[in-house]
Amino acid sequence: MVAELTVALDGMGGDFGPETVISGADIASVRHPDVRFLIFGDRAIVEPILLKHPRVAAASTFEHTDVSISMDDKPSQALRRGRRTSSMWKAIDAVKQGRAGVAVSAGNTGALMAMAKVILKTMPNVERPAIAALWPTLRGESVVLDVGATIGPHAFQLVQFAVMGEAYARVIFNIEKPTVGLLNIGQEEVKGTESVKLAAQMLRESSLPIIFHGFVEGDDLGKGTVDVVVTDGFTGNIALKTAEGTARQVGEYLSQAISRSFFAKIGYVFAQGAFKTLRAKMDPRASNGGVFLGLDGLVVKSHGGTDGIGYAAAIDVAIDVASANLLGKIRTDLDLLTGFRERFMAPGAEAGRKAADVTEPPEVALS
Amino acid sequence: MVAELTVALDGMGGDFGPETVISGADIASVRHPDVRFLIFGDRAIVEPILLKHPRVAAASTFEHTDVSISMDDKPSQALRRGRRTSSMWKAIDAVKQGRAGVAVSAGNTGALMAMAKVILKTMPNVERPAIAALWPTLRGESVVLDVGATIGPHAFQLVQFAVMGEAYARVIFNIEKPTVGLLNIGQEEVKGTESVKLAAQMLRESSLPIIFHGFVEGDDLGKGTVDVVVTDGFTGNIALKTAEGTARQVGEYLSQAISRSFFAKIGYVFAQGAFKTLRAKMDPRASNGGVFLGLDGLVVKSHGGTDGIGYAAAIDVAIDVASANLLGKIRTDLDLLTGFRERFMAPGAEAGRKAADVTEPPEVALS
User: Fold this and answer.
1) Residue pair B10/B88 in contact by the 8 Å Cβ criterion
2) CA of A298 to nearest chain B CA: how many angstroms apart?
3) CATH number given to B1-124+295-324
4) Which of A8, A207, A284, B302 could be bridged to A94 by S-S, CB 3.0 to 4.6 A?
5) How far apart are CA B25 and CA B61, in angstroms?
6) Cβ-defined contact of B271 to A277 (cutoff 8 Å)
7) pLDDT tens digits for A297-315?
8) Which of A121, A151, A196, A353 to mutate to test the interface with B (most CBs of B within 10 A)?
9) Of the candidates A118, A116, A115, A202, the residue with the CA atom closest to the CA atom of residue A157
10) Residues ≥6 apart with Cβ < 8 Å to A61
11) Of B221, B260, B364, the CB nearest to A274
12) What CATH number does the domain located at A131-260+337-367 have?
């Protein structure tokens, strides 16, 4: 699709800055020798690191930027300080200008999303963006969105997330017909917020070419019950961090239990291979890379605290979505939503807004 | 406080019915020889089981009921079919009548909450009930509420949850000053839903005798950053099930990794003790028992799929909260909320409702 793909990199983003970015690009460039990088950052810091990574240097164009967005900058500060001048802004702007097919940043999520919205704008038929994460499951991986961009989307926005997430799953998992579920607190139709219930009705009764599985619950995330789990950014973000925390907690229990006994330590030596497998399975670096969906251009967010291996995984995601023309696929799918809102929502602005209200569940309201 | 405590048991609730209930009561009665049980259920089914558990039989009064609420009954069905006649209804009603200090049921949550609301009503100064769960953490255990009773509480209702959850933590953990956090998608004041932000402001600026830690995130649940985590029932339910699912997922990874290699199996034999410790740490039965808070009477929900050991843990929770006079403590604390709403919310009904609306986070709204 893309003859020669260029990936724009925010060289200064992340907890560890250019070290992580360049070593990630190094790892990725072995897997993708044809990809070019367009790196933005502070010359005095980035160039010495590039010298140590000749493979990246050869595959890259470097451009100096004066301003770096810090991990603590509020989105408003970032926009004030970093507009047109920061490495983050310029990486996204390179996508807007067509100089790059996709941008990657490990910078702070709020700032990155705010800038991406300003520069790229939302696509036609999309009201709010979503961040789609890859979630390791017992069956492999699922796409979960939104994990933090949009708090309190209404029903039709959840349907838009479903359409975009399904397209992303097709591309990233290379499957034709991903299954889609809506995250809820029960399987029954009467459960959940008004927006979730209405979104389910829309997905069920629509003729969208989506395999809608219905509601899924929190424990379905780890099981991998569906390929795509749709939720609001508040719930998705908390679920994601809860899962990360629980995995670390269990890992901690395990190492405590083993270090407490002599025989367990011997057992550990024998089972080293198995523990290595386990660690690999649980390695959050493997599923690094959150894709911003709904914007008119591709941006991938790397975890800020990751290392080169994790950053390379985010670059892989970026390359996958850009070379598979994810934007084009989403645009085509979203066309199917024309007239959709009118079909399902009562006339007037009220209908669209009403769905965002959260209400008491029917069973409790009974009494 | 309570000279002789009677615990009312819904003998027919749960996936496995009276077998689990009676064997749970048997285990609990060893730990609490002074506690009496008031058991409701179908005589033809329960009596033969009681014969096999003479210790429970001796500590119990049994009353026949014709109707059992099934795990699939919708709350409305349950109320129609089971009003005044079912084992679930009668167990709760025994609390209302003062015949028991607390009721335990493993029946379906929606039905149990609907009946409990009808029979017991909400307390003064409480608008909506919450279900408080015990959450295993790296530091021990935390209280998390609400995990499913109230979808979309407004800010003042979240403050009520904080007050009730703090009182519960004092009782169940036997600590004087539990710390309280609000579950959110970031630590910063600008993040989250309107109701979460306003609730934080209320807790921060009020003179409530609560140690308010501020916002906590999903990964703070497993860390045990605070003793009490306050959230809405939608998010709390999904977080709880996500954590359960993730723990199972990691356990599954571990057993797959070990069963795949000969040396790992040998290692497993040596490390058996450690794996036993790990299993005990991760045993969901140990933290079984969700307390309904905000009603004028105590009801404890046991997990429907648990066994006798898990059911006994729910009875333990019930005994703890009843004998520590949790209701009285909550009533006293809630008195401090008189005039609270007026202080923090703009006049008119609108203010109370507005807080329940979920809105876009400020950083995204910027652009």
Assistant:
1) yes
2) 17
3) 3.40.718.10
4) A8
5) 13
6) no
7) 999 999 999 999 999 999 9
8) A151
9) A202
10) A36, A37, A38, A39
11) B260
12) 3.40.718.10
Question: Per-domain residue ranges for chain B?
Answer: 1-124+295-324, 127-260+337-367
Residue of B137, B250, B360 to mutate for A, most A C-beta atoms under 10 A: B250
What's the pTM? 0.90
Describe the crossing of helices B308-323 and B18-31 by its angle, rounded to 10 degrees.
50
Q: B352 to chain A nearest CA, in Å? A: 13
Tell me which range, A248-262, A313-327, A329-343, B334-348, is most confidently predicted by mean pLDDT. A313-327
Interface size, chain A vs chain B, as Cβ–Cβ contacts under 8 Å? 299
User: What token pair was written down for B265?
Assistant: 């199996």
Computed on alpha carbons and rounded to an integer, the radius of gyration of chain A in Å comes to 22
Give B128's contacts in chain A (Cβ within 8 Å): 360, 364
- Backbone φ and ψ of A350, nearest 5°: -55, -40
- Kindly report the nearest CA distance between residue A209 and chain B, in angstroms: 28
Fold annotation for B127-260+337-367: Isopropylmalate Dehydrogenase (3.40.718)
Q: How far is B47 from chain A (nearest CA, A)?
A: 32
ipTM: 0.88
User: Which token pair is A258?
Assistant: 């083993």
Would you call A250 and B282 a contact, using CB atoms and an 8 Å cutoff? yes
Contact at CB, A222 and B239, closer than 8 angstroms: no
Distance in Å from the first CA to the final CA of chain A? 59
Buried/exposed code over A250-273 (b: 16+ C-beta within 10 A; e: otherwise) = beebbeebbeebeebeebbebbeb
CATH number attached to the domain at A1-126+288-329: 3.40.718.10
Residues forming beta bridges with residue B62, ordered by sequence position: B39
Q: A244 and B218: CB-CB below 8 Å?
A: yes
Kindly give the confidence (pLDDT) of every residue in chain B, 367 residues in length, as a single tens digit, with 9 standing for 90 and above: 446 899 999 999 999 999 999 999 999 999 999 999 999 999 999 999 999 999 999 999 999 999 999 988 889 999 999 999 999 999 999 999 999 999 999 999 999 999 999 999 999 889 999 999 999 999 999 999 999 999 999 999 999 999 999 999 999 999 999 999 999 998 877 789 999 999 999 999 888 899 999 999 999 999 999 999 999 999 999 999 999 999 999 888 888 888 878 877 887 787 788 778 877 877 878 889 999 999 999 999 999 999 999 999 999 999 999 999 999 999 999 988 887 777 776 654 333 333 333 333 323 222 2
Report which of B317, B328, B330 is spatially closest to residue B104, judged by C-alpha positions.
B317
Q: Which of B285, B273, B216, B274 is nearest to B244 (CA)?
A: B285
Contact present, A145 and A108 (Cβ < 8 Å): no
Cβ–Cβ gap B192/A272 under 8 Å: no
Q: A-chain residues within 8 Å CB-CB of B278? A: 250, 253-254, 257
B271 and A264 in contact by Cβ < 8 A? yes
Give the distance from CA B102 to its chain's centroid. Answer: 14
Q: How far apart are CA A356 and CA A150, in angstroms?
A: 12
Do the first three CATH levels of A1-126+288-329 and A131-260+337-367 match, i.e. the same topology?
yes
Residues in chain A within 8 Å Cβ distance of B281: 253, 257
* Min distance A113 CA to chain B CA atoms (Å): 7
